[in-house]
Amino acid sequence: MVSSSLPRLEAPSPAYICPYDQACSYLEEAAKELKLNQGFVEVLSHPRKVVTVSIPVKRDNGEVQVLAGHRVQHCDVLGPYKGGIRYHPAVTLREVSALAMLMTWKCALVGIPYGGAKGGIALDPKFYSVGELERITRRYTSELIKDIGPSIDIPAPDMGTSAREMAWMMDTYSVNVGHAVPGVVTGKPISVGGSRGREMATGRGTMFIVREALADKGESLVGARVAIQGFGNVGSAAALLLHEAGAKVIAVSTGSGGVFSEAGLDIPALKVYAANNRRSVVGFGQAIPISNAELLSLPCDVLIPAALENQITEDNVNQVQARIVAEAANGPVTLAANQALEARGVTVLPDILANAGGVVVSYLEWVQGLSYVFWDEERVNKELESLMVQAYRQVIQQSKIRQIPLRLAAYTLGVGRVAQALGDRGLYP
Ligand code: NAD
Description:
- By secondary structure, the chain is α/β, with parallel strands linked by helices.
- The protein folds into two domains: about 20-30 and about 45-180, 3-Layer(aba) Sandwich (Rossmann fold), CATH 3.40.50.10860; about 200-355, Rossmann fold.
- Helices cover about 45% and strands about 15% of the residues.
- The protein has a seven-stranded mixed beta sheet with strand order 9-8-7-6-10-11-12, with helices on both faces.
- The chain is globular.
- The chain starts with 18 loop residues before the first helix and ends with a helix.
- The structure holds nicotinamide-adenine-dinucleotide.
């Protein structure tokens, strides 16, 4: 397997599912379907640049701690690198590398001129004060100062980061280069050049894709029973928009547990509750407590994993009762579980399609910033809908023409477009 050339910094446990090996398997499967030249596969199996930096931080109690921060740039044949920054204790170099590769196919699939990148720091933001998080973010940014920039690599929020961290990154970069550079990150606050609609964009994109998939089955969002794992940026936005569209969101969960209501949860009230309870939904009135494992196995029309990787695996896939699984998170369904779901006729809407709304509006934010013309939210949402629906239709068409499942169809489109550009550009020297 080509991926073995990547340094293995963590000691894998026996149950460890390597995200980078999984990402390479998807690439190899798409390459086989497309009968791609093996040389292209070799190039695309390796990230172009891998940066790991030490981030010394002075804790509020005076102790000094050194964290490891990564930024992986996978492939820039279509344009500047683009990808989120994740703060989570499970961050590893191999995970960040897998997510960077995924970004390359995602951008190509939705037709935006970016290459894939990803960054992350292994830390649990819960255990750091706002001041500590700011010092960590600023030091990480300054360590990467030569590797990022509006035409080089443009970070955005991911798990554990938000507009706040993007504002700190933008400020640190700008102070270091001597002038304001809003285009160095996306997902910024609107006050410093962020786009209207960006905060809800990933969840909104998921809602559009689920709506289209239901419509293809002759159904609608109205009354559809939906369960959502994760109630952060993506999960809570998807929950709210689906609720507003008439779906019955019967269960949601966070890292500390979930809640269930047969009649459907009051999502606006739940958002307020979570905001006042350290982002947890546990203890929300008029709902039954459930575990994350129970949420994944609920009978429902649509299951939306919107938290972490590897949540639906060989071990629990037989308990999944949903008819549609929409991957709002990156890589929530393992390779083996994906095959089992497809064999059972479950519609799996793959991550590179179902969660592409975030990068689409990041692109729209970048375009607005470069042109110094800012749009109202209605226009942003319309452009998002148009790009998402177009990508969905192309995936369905590819799936029908080639008689392949949706994930492989999405990958063949993304990988195929990047390979075409790679061939047209040629190899230097
Ligand atoms: P977030 O940090 O805002 O929220 C993550 C949510 O997952 C929280 O509710 C957290 O409690 C929950 N969670 C954490 N561990 C869990 C566990 N073990 N079981 C159940 N829930 C758990 O992150 P986010 O930005 O919403 O990102 C979620 C996923 O979506 C990630 O896979 C991310 O890569 C992907 N994604 C995010 C964006 C974006 O724009 N933020 C874009 C594309 C994809």
